[in-house]
Specification:
Blueprint (H helix, E strand, L loop, with lengths): L8 H27 L1 H27 L6 H16 L4 E9 L2 E9 H8 L10 H11 L22 E6 L7
Antiparallel strand pairs: 1-2, 2-3
Length: 173
């Protein structure tokens, strides 16, 4: 029997990520072609949130994450970004501003690079922060309402991509 080639874990992770992202791009293109850009954007944002809720909940279970501390949440989000997205595809920094508020800054984004190449920079609605919102939901530390703006990609427009997020606070009964 012939031995299978052995791939380092980092190579396997990279191959899996890239397979997922080519699927994601092909799915988006097919929806756009069949139903138009507005539908593709809307469905993409919804799908990204669903996937993010699932991937973050799984990571939370594996790591024993308990909701409550924003600093711990930000560390787990960074771990998830490294695992699910990869450091070479996106550079995102988070800075805690208060016990319930933080800033996220994206300096490099593979999505922005690809939508520019595809000629969609003026029409593609960014779903990166929909993923962040899904992570918050999956880890049971949701964002306050209206925290994820529906906008075209700032980086693709040559602008700075920086957002402040506020955790949802419990309302007294």
């Amino acid at each position: 029997m012939q031995e299978q080639p052995i791939l380092p874990a980092t190579t396997r992770e990279d191959l899996l990520r890239r397979a997922w992202y080519i699927h994601d791009a092909a799915w988006f293109a097919a929806v756009r072609e069949a139903y138009g850009m507005e539908a593709a954007n809307r469905l993409n944002q919804k799908a990204v949130q669903v996937v993010a809720r699932a991937e973050s909940a799984r990571l939370g279970r594996v790591t024993g994450f308990q909701p409550g501390d924003l600093g711990e949440l930000l560390r787990l989000i960074e771990t998830g970004r490294e695992l699910y997205v990869g450091q070479d595809l996106m550079e995102m920094k988070t800075t805690q501003l208060a016990p319930d508020r933080y800033e996220a800054s994206v300096s490099r984004c593979f999505v922005a690079e690809h939508i520019v190449k595809a000629g969609m920079a003026t029409d593609y609605k960014c779903a990166v922060f929909d993923r962040v919102q899904g992570w918050h939901q999956g880890l049971r530390m949701p964002l306050a309402e209206g925290q994820v703006p529906r906008t075209t990609c700032l980086i693709a427009r040559g602008e700075e991509c920086r957002r402040e997020f506020q955790l949802k606070t419990e309302q007294p009964p």
